[in-house]
Amino acid sequence: MENRTYTTDAAPGDTVTVAGWVHEIRDLGGIAFLILRDTTGKIQVKFEKDEMDDDLVETGLNVQRESVISVTGDVEEEPRAPTGVEVTPESVDVISEADPELPLDPSGKVDAELPTRLDNRTLDLRKDEVKAIFEIRAEVLRSVREAFRDLNCTEINTPKIVATGTEGGTELFPITYFGQEAFMNQSPQLFKQLMVGSGLERVFEIGPIFRAEEHNTPRHLNEATSIDFESAFYDHTEAMDACEHVVRSAYEGVAENCQDELEALGLEDEFAAPEGDFPRLTYEDALNRINATGELDEPLVWGDDLSTEAEHVLGQEVGEHYFITDWPSEIKPFYIKDHDDDEEVSTGFDMMHPSMELVSGGQREHRFDHLVEGFEQQGLDPEAFEYYTKMFKYGMPPHAGWGLGGERLIMTMLGLENIREAVLFPRDRQRLSP
Length: 434
Ligand code: ATP
Ligand code: MG
Hints:
alpha+beta; BirA Bifunctional Protein, domain 2; 2 domains; 5-stranded mixed beta barrel; elongated; binds adenosine-5'-triphosphate; binds magnesium ion
């Protein structure tokens, strides 16, 4: 639109055309105010009924809330206006009239349940605090990409339609691919590993992962965004260093560039990037600390996965981001390398926020014979993965990496109660549209 001025840029003395949505109309009798909202903020438009053209007043005050309009007029200082300035209109143009029956109230005066909000995301994102989540999400992805660049990574994109799953047959969405069975990919795991053996060596990918999670939970999606990293000649400790750098950078980016958004969410005082190194506990330490609290009905024993409850108990104990290392080999996937001096213990690690798991990673098995053995032990057919295993015969360096759940990072960063708050159009058991 030619000559459009954003509301926040309208300065006293200017003649401007502002355009956006009708946020509110307040009619006080002889004088009335229309609050116009755009992506940058809001501005007051003043109608003095006796001094203005009747048509102009009528157009401005009869328009439905949430209609799109443009207003041309002079900007003046007005300390009583919400932003300290107001526009006296010379003309008002109704560009797109809104139906008076709104399915959702963008002014937030009437609360809406999450399903109603998700059904009407366009209107939902007209609210400052909802829009703020997605501005922050964009900043997280920007800072994460920058952090990967610090680490000299190359960004890659791998297929999401695949012939086989990574983590066995469960949680896979089957699709039909020209009459042949195929699946939506659960993870870029195998592809990113293949790239560390290429000339690229160190790669990252930000892309969708698809998981047919059986249950609706506040922290699982059926389509999520995975932030994946993999590097040649890295061991699991170096991969953890990289993970810490990336997560910290995301927080720092938000702290630096999203003050207004944090304010919209009421987080401006409490938001802070994690300080110091993330503690690294072994799985055994973790079990001991959990069991010592006596909060679980049954103490955990070696080989148990950590339940949601166990994660909470430990998270309360540690109280900051932390790693759990040296997991039992039997509960980590086939591609994770075991320790050379104890094959019962793997190099797999998880990175945890006090409330939930954010990352799984580890050093990978790069020795062809061990890899094929691992497939067989997990009951997988190595032949189905020949495209992958084959490349381990032609010079595959030792390597390590991890996958970070993008929505979980944003959810925990902002203290959101439900992961769906961090996705524009979430996919869950009930929701396939919009
Ligand atoms: P969980 O046990 O919490 O379901 P997972 O161990 O099955 O997670 P991984 O396969 O380790 O998940 O995936 C790596 C990361 O991707 C997880 O730590 C998490 O942050 C994210 N992630 C995995 N599955 C989902 C999902 N269904 N929804 C949202 N994020 C997910
Ligand atoms: Mg995991």
